[in-house]
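Batch manifest, entry 17 of 40.
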Amino acid sequence: MARHKRRRVLPPPASTNASGPAQNAKGFIEVQGKVTELLPSAMFRVELDNGHTVLAHLSGKMRMFKIRLMSGDRVTVEMTPYDLSKGRITYRH
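Output type: structure tokens
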């Protein structure tokens, strides 16, 4: 019978990093921002708290529950580390 090596269980990565923004469990960067412009096809221009502007769309749950956004709303945007110019709006504050 072959003996199997035990795998080490590593702790999950920290959600906040001293040198960068917070990341969720799937590796997306979550930042806060304000909706500045409503665009066609359920797209929004969001100005982040750090001054950058991104193009964002609504997440599936927000579409499913018909959460409406207006210019000036505070939102949480989820972005992938590979393309920081686009994002997904996951929460309206």
